[in-house]
Every structure is written in C-alpha cells, then in structure tokens.
Design goal:
The protein has eleven helices and 18 strands. By secondary structure, the protein is of the alpha/beta class. The protein is globular and about 60 Å long. It binds zinc ion (2 copies).
Length: about 375
C-alpha cells in the first residue's frame, strides 16, 4: 500500500475532489507508476458528465506519463526507474489482440471502462471505501497509478530531454489522430485530406498528414485560432466551419476528397464529408456521437465509387510500437505535439477541464509530480 492523492469523481459532485487515498502494491503482471503528467481527454469529460456508464466513485485519467516505482510478479519488460507512457489496455488473447489490433480487443470495455481489475477488485481506496481504478488500465489522475505491463510503454532513451509530463497524451488523443492518418487510412503522398475539427485529435492528424506528404491538407473548424495553428502545423488550406464548407471544399478539390477525417461526431458533417469523397475515397470517423445516432449514405455512391467509411479507435495503434514512432517523429521535428499542450497544476484539475471545454486550451496536461 502506498499513500497517494487522487482526483476522485463521485456521484452528485460537480467536478473532481482531490482526496487522500491508498493504492495497492502491484499484483502479478501489474506496474506501479508514479504519475508525472496526465492529459485531459474528452472521454474523461463524458464519464464525469455521466454520458458513459462507468461506475462511481472512480479515478479517471487515461493519458498518464511517469516513472515506474515497482513491478509485480512476472513483469519482464519494465524495471523501477523506467520513464513510461500509459496507454489503453487490452486482453492480449482475443483474435484482434492476436492480430495486433488491440484497440478492437473483444474485451475493450472490461479492460478500459469497467474500472476495476478483470476479477472485479479495485486498487484504490479512501477512508470512505474502495474507489474504482484501472480506468483505461491506469486511472492516472492521481499521484500513482496501477497499470499492466501490456499498456505501459517505455520511453526511448534518446527522448530523455523531452519533458516527461508532456508525453501522456500520446497514449490516447494524439495517437488517435496520427494513427488514423498513418495506420487506419494509410494516407498516401500527394492525395487530398480534409480534417473536420481542429482539436487535439484533428491537429495531430494534420501533423501526421504532413509527415505522409498529403496535399492538399484542409482543416475545418469554428475557431480562427485553431485554424491558424492548423496552418502552422501543416494545413495547406483552412475553412471556417460556419460557412459553406461543401462549396469551399469543392473549390479546393474539384474531383473530390481522397480522404476525409471526422473528429466531431456530428452526423450532418459526416454525411457532408461522405458526399464529397472522390472515387475510392476513405472517410475515417473518430468523433463520439449520441449512443443512438444513425448515419445515412447513398448505397450507389458507396458501392459504385468503391468508397470506404471506417470507424477508428485509438488510431489502430499498437501503443508499444506506435508511441515510440511518434516520439521519433517529434525528436526529428516533424511532430511538434507540444504546441497543443498547456500545463496545469494537479490541484487545478477542474480549471483544466474548463479550459478544454471552453476551447481556450487544446490539450490540458496536469503536472502531477516532478520528473
Ligand atoms: Zn483482446
Ligand atoms: Zn482519450
């Protein structure tokens, strides 16, 4: 047992309360990580606002980075002192995990949203009782987290000068955008890509599109400041989302879009993007919609044009492979993801969420402890 401080999300409470708590020693296959930084992602908000059925009370946070403090029995790839990034969890045994597609693990819900070990036990407790842990295999809005060897990625030695607290978002939001472009859609050089929504996921996609050599790269958003940043990060064209987006895209790409990437989850925009695809065009979707939302496409256009609509989770990443690749791109100056980040003190977690919701900050990261 280790004494920790954790941001707890409780029933009937507006924001998070930072509480004194205790965390278990790591069990077999588990790793105890002292958290240095933790990114704020929309999925955390969705749980806080009860849009996702995660049991309460819970410690959220799923973009943690930190230093390994202890490892449980059977852990062979990590030792205390390792700098690490925490990512989503997966079972390692189902057909999709066997196919190196852990984001589509058959037990994704159990390992990421049930917020307990697969046997139902929880790693965190306060004086009031047990608190759900293992959210996305980590629960990193705390000074310490219990993760599993499988979802803890070692930071390459040559990245020791990159501030460790900035690396956590690579574990979810940033790998989602970059992976959608580089892995899922496998965007080709010289082909057009339109990105709907220039938040953390969309801007990460734009940086990755520049790496892939896509051209033109078009960013669509409602905020001028985000469109300006999109241009600096690789967008060749920007379109204000409150105008005639279809007409503007038609002018830039009269033959249609080779790739469209939606981060908004808005049905109207998704259907608009589908209608603008070129023959063999691919539309990638990562935005969260209402649970009962439906989409309408023309069958003849989909079939006759050889078009594809892809649902994408976590950018089809195998975090153990893809996160080191993203760090390599960053070190080479091709993936300046730090430009999306603004840091907040851990105790200011509720302010960090507000800054994200108002659109003022693209990717807030909590500084939980010193690297
Ligand atoms: Zn699996
Ligand atoms: Zn996330």
């Amino acid at each position: 047992m280790t004494a920790i401080r954790a941001a707890v999300c409780r029933e009937g409470q507006a924001g998070f309360s930072i509480e004194e708590a205790r965390i278990d020693a790591p069990r077999a296959g588990e790793v105890l990580v002292r958290i240095v930084g933790a990114g704020v992602c929309h999925t955390d908000m969705a749980v806080r606002d009860r849009q996702l059925p995660v049991p309460l009370p819970v410690v959220l946070g799923h973009e943690g980075s930190g230093v390994v403090e202890a490892v449980g029995a059977g852990v062979t790839t990590l030792v205390p002192g390792d700098a690490v990034v925490l990512s989503f969890a997966s079972c390692g045994a189902c057909p999709n995990c066997a196919d190196d597609a852990p984001a589509y693990c058959y037990d994704f819900g159990l390992h990421n949203f049930a917020s307990a070990r697969p046997d139902g036990s929880m790693a965190i407790s306060t004086a009031q009782g047990p608190v759900h842990s293992h959210f996305f295999g980590q629960s990193s809005f705390a000074t310490h987290a219990i993760a599993t060897e499988r979802n803890v990625v070692k930071v390459p030695a040559n990245a020791k000068d990159v501030p460790l607290e900035l690396l956590g978002p690579l574990g979810c939001g940033l790998q989602t955008g970059a992976g959608a472009v580089l892995n899922s859609m496998a965007v080709k050089a010289g082909r057009s890509l339109a990105v709907f929504g220039a938040g953390a996921v969309g801007l990460s996609a734009i940086m990755a599109a520049r790496i892939a050599g896509a051209d033109p790269i078009i960013a669509i958003d409602l905020h001028d400041s985000r469109l300006a940043l999109a241009r600096e990060l690789g967008a060749t064209h920007t379109i204000k989302g409150d105008g005639d987006v279809a007409a503007a895209l038609g002018e830039i790409c009269p033959e249609g879009l080779n790739y469209a990437f939606d981060t908004t989850g808005l049905g109207k925009l998704i259907e608009l993007a589908f209608g603008l695809l070129a023959p063999r065009g691919i539309l990638g979707l990562v935005g969260a919609s209402d649970a009962d939302a439906m989409l309408h496409f023309n069958e003849t256009s989909l079939m006759g044009g050889g078009k594809r609509v892809m649902g994408i989770l976590e950018g089809d990443s195998d975090p153990q492979v893809f996160i080191p690749q993203l760090i390599e791109h960053h070190l080479a100056g091709r993936y300046p993801f730090d430009r999306l980040i603004e840091t907040f003190a851990f105790d200011d977690i509720n302010e960090a969420f507000e800054a994200s919701e108002s659109g003022r900050v693209i990717k807030p990261v909590l500084k939980v402890s010193v690297a």
